[in-house]
Amino acid sequence: MPADVPVVEVHLQPPPAALLEDAATAVIDILRATTVHAALLGGGAEAIYPVAEWPDAHRLRERLPGARLIGEIDSLPGPQAEYGNSPTEFAALDVRSWRMIHVTGNGTRALSAAARAPFVISACLRNLSACAAALRREAELRGRPIAIVCSGDHGGATASFEDTAAAGAYVEALSRLAPTLRLGNEALIALRLWQRCAAAPLNALRESPHGRDLLTLGFAADLAYAAEIDADPVVPRLTRDSEGRPYLSAQQ
Description:
The chain is 39% helix and 20% strand. It is an alpha/beta fold. It has a single domain (7-241), classed as Alpha-Beta Complex (putative 2-phosphosulfolactate phosphatase), CATH 3.90.1560. Helix 5 (128-142) packs across helix 6 (161-177) and helix 6 (161-177) crosses helix 7 (185-197).
């Protein structure tokens, strides 16, 4: 395969920032951060500031009057949060024009770590086709490799079954859009896992360790919501505000 053919790499855990410095990057946290982003921006929210740590989120809230603090610790609402991390809760609200500060154990950490990459989107199954097309377009226009980052579990310290499967869905979608793409080793691993799960994505989410924990906590509806494919054709892209702080908004 010629060396100039675009490459798709999957990172089963968030990688060092240097590995993403020239990549068109998608960050995935299916359960539930990136699914929340699709729900919020698909519903008309204005901006989501992903933050890695709660103390940083509380400080940022003081600098962003009117911003709502949302997120979780161990899947339940975090300290002083107005809302938790449930996409179905946000889907039932009128979130038009909301600005939010979002903190989670995995997804917002991974997004914060990837913020130095030149092109970063928040990806899930609900915006699969839209985000895959955005990645392909950026790779072709700028000559960039594509990196799909799984947020993982335990703050990114271990791989995540459901994020790996979802990454495989992106590899499959990208391969359809651009059949000449070269796939890295972990991209092939993710693709093979997705091919085993594609017929019943909800079952895969239910079987994952994190999915089982969410079911125990009463979040079955969130799993069903996260398993829907192409229900929210929005591309949440990471950009920076006038003070250089990264935030997600719907790519136009």
